[in-house]
Design brief:
CATH architecture of the largest domain: 3-Layer(aba) Sandwich
Number of helices: 8
CATH topology of the largest domain: Aminopeptidase
Distance between the termini: 26 Å
Oligomer: single chain
Order of helices and strands: EHHEEEHEHEEHHEEEHEHE
Number of strands: 12
Number of domains: 2
Strand content: 25-35%
Structural class: alpha+beta
CATH class of the largest domain: Alpha Beta
């Protein structure tokens, strides 16, 4: 594509009543489609912007954003002006597997480029992890969700705990000794076909295999539901990589994450 100076256009933020009309565009996202699909189905919060040329931008509550459809230089320029190079109401991380998109933003001021490894699940876990005797595991419920602590928790990708409890699920581990929160694994994004898993372990309780055990429990539940477990992490996150591989995930690609420095 030959990029030349373009006129300024407007990406229109659509009403939630129109979201299902863009489900095919969400499913057309080849980079971690579970997040845009979760928006289009109304399962999780997020915004959808469209232009009059068939380009669709999905911006999830957690900040992950995806472009689908007929992507033009006009649309990419507007995304840069209004989202990537501007202050936004929440963070904006554009995740893409398109070299065209990445090349368009290459060399731009204010931007940082990272890599994100995407995984799918084999459906088989040869050596299921064993829960350390010092911990107990619970389903996340209305009674205990307030005990979950950390950065990658249901509040990372769900706007309200009630919505998570209605549309998502997860497991948490506690210390048998004092009942304190130790780790959590939960549905970070949910679609009819896939569930992306988020995991967090309290610093005090790391190196007990809790991330692997809870991720295993999540995979078992997702497969039982007839859906596919998916996983993703920053290329530099070797801990997350180790956990993913330990419970049957296999890497399927590397996406580019573009965000404001």
């Amino acid at each position: 594509m030959d990029y030349k100076p373009v006129k300024y256009i407007v990406l229109r933020k659509i009403d939630r009543s129109e979201y299902t009309e863009y489900l095919k565009y969400a499913r057309g996202c080849t980079a971690n489609r579970v997040y845009p699909v979760s928006i289009a189905t109304g399962t999780q919060d997020g915004d959808i912007y469209v232009d009059d040329k068939g380009c669709v931008l999905f911006w999830h509550y957690c900040g992950f954003a995806y472009i689908s459809g007929d992507v033009s230089a006009d649309a990419l320029e507007e995304v840069y002006r209004n989202f990537l190079a501007s202050d936004t109401e929440r963070r904006f991380l554009l995740i893409t597997d398109s070299e065209v998109v990445s090349d368009y933003y290459s060399g731009r001021d204010f931007l940082r480029f990272d890599k994100r490894i995407e995984y799918t699940h084999s459906g088989i876990i040869d050596n299921p992890p064993i829960l350390d005797d010092g911990f107990i595991v619970e389903h996340i419920t209305a009674d205990n969700i307030g005990d979950v602590q950390g950065r990658i928790t249901p509040s990372f990708s769900w706007n309200e705990s009630d919505i998570f409890l209605r549309n998502g699920f997860g497991f948490m581990a506690r210390s048998k000794e004092d009942g304190s929160f130790a780790a959590v694994a939960f549905s970070s994004a949910v679609s009819p076909e896939e569930v992306d898993i988020g995991v967090e372990t309290a610093e005090t309780y790391r190196h007990h295999g809790l991330a692997s055990y809870l991720a295993y429990e999540m995979c078992e539940e997702i497969i039982r539901q007839g859906r596919r477990p998916v996983w993703a992490h920053a290329e530099t996150n070797t801990g997350s990589q180790k956990t993913a591989l330990s419970v049957g995930f296999k890497p399927i690609g590397i996406n580019t994450v573009i965000q404001k420095k």
